[in-house]
Write a structure and sequence with these properties.
- The chain is of the alpha+beta class.
- Helices cover 49% and strands 11% of the residues.
- It has helices at residues 2-7, 16-29, 43-52, 145-153, 166-193, 206-220, 224-228, 230-254, 257-268, 276-292, 298-305, 310-317, and strands spanning 37-39, 79-81, 83-88, 99-103, 108-111, 115-116, 125-129, 136-139, 155-158.
- The strands form three sheets. Strands 5-4-7-8 form a four-stranded antiparallel β-sheet, with no helix packed on it. The chain has a three-stranded mixed β-sheet with strand order 6-3-9, with no helix packed on it. Strands 1-2 form a two-stranded antiparallel ribbon.
- The longest helix has 28 residues, at 166-193.
- The model is unreliable at 164-170 (pLDDT under 50).
Length: 319
């Protein structure tokens, strides 16, 4: 660093090529923050480095006589990810206590991530272990699919061990509590939307996101896996009953004439000039209807309205 610092600066004895050489050295030295990336040792990379670092630097920025300046960027094609990181699959946080054992033909090496990973040609298998996590073993021998994945990402994920059988019961109780809370919040929101003047900045708009998550849970729990798993079937039944309750409440809200007129104005693009509280209630109502019902986009709705009246279209959507 001291040497590079002395080479940097304005001086009559330092040419444009001196600055280019020092800046390239800094870029390669701190590549990827100093640990994430490195230079490959393949034959193609060595050839590119010879071209990019050819020791005939220009005298000024238009000098391309002895070496084309664009070739100086070819060293970027030699960059490969080399930092091996182990993360928790649930939280994405780095596992600080993980130990990675690298197996090769002649020796076995233990490293603590994050650590620069050696060349893939020198490793045949990887074993990762950490307290509180399930051990992971990977075959990275030549020709394996895992070898390509590890080469591109250099990130390994560990699955936490289930601490106790009661953990499942605790999670199920939390899921049931979330379902009950979502139903109550949906009922409160529907009640508020029927009284637009009572809608203020304290309206819990996050209930729409909770209803969307509930709908995703219901759709996911209708998979064949749930039908074969008796433990998950209880979760699916609880979620489906909660979804029916929320949908029934929203459909009842949508059957009111004022809500039907609001949906018609939204489809036709005719937004009346109303107070801020009424506009907030309108936006919340439209978001709630689209979160629960299979409503078409305004452009698609107007195309369908050319075939059937909008009132009949709304009645069909509310079935």
């Amino acid at each position: 660093m001291k040497r590079l610092r002395t080479l940097h600066g304005v001086n009559a004895n330092r040419s444009y090529g001196n600055h280019m050489a020092s800046h390239m050295a800094l870029g390669i030295l701190f590549l990827g923050g100093g640990a994430r990336f490195t230079i490959s040792r393949s034959t193609q990379s060595i050839a590119l480095l010879v071209v990019a670092l050819f020791p005939r630097f220009p005298q000024h920025y238009t000098d391309n006589c002895e070496h084309l300046q664009a070739w100086r960027h070819l060293w970027a094609l030699c960059v490969v990810p080399r930092c091996l990181v182990v993360r928790d699959v649930r939280t994405g946080q780095m596992c600080r206590d993980a130990v990675v054992v690298l197996h090769s033909e002649n020796r076995q090496t233990s490293v603590v991530p994050p650590v620069p990973f050696p060349e893939m040609d020198c490793v045949q298998s990887i074993r990762v272990s950490a307290p509180g996590y399930m051990a992971l073993s990977l075959d990275v021998s030549l020709g394996s699919h895992t070898r390509d994945l590890v080469s591109r990402r250099r990130v390994l994920y560990l699955q936490p061990q289930t601490p106790a059988p009661m953990h499942g019961i605790a999670v199920l109780s939390q899921f049931t509590e979330w379902l009950t809370s979502t139903q109550m919040r949906a009922n409160v929101l529907c009640t508020q939307l029927m009284q637009p003047h009572s809608v203020n900045d304290a309206v819990d708009s996050s209930v729409v996101h909770a209803i969307r998550r509930l709908r995703i849970c219901v759709l996911a729990m209708h998979s064949p896996f749930v039908a074969r798993n008796s433990c998950v079937s209880g979760w699916a039944e609880e979620a489906y009953l909660a979804w029916l309750n929320v949908r029934t409440r929203v459909v009842a809200l949508a059957r009111h004439d004022e809500i039907r007129r609001l949906l018609t104005r939204y489809w036709t693009g005719n937004q009346p000039n109303t107070q801020l509280s009424d506009m907030r209630a309108s936006y919340a109502t439209i978001a709630l209807l689209y979160a629960v019902l299979d409503l078409p986009a305004p452009s698609d709705a107007m195309k369908l309205a050319q075939q059937v009246p909008i009132s009949q279209l709304i009645d069909f959507m509310l079935q």
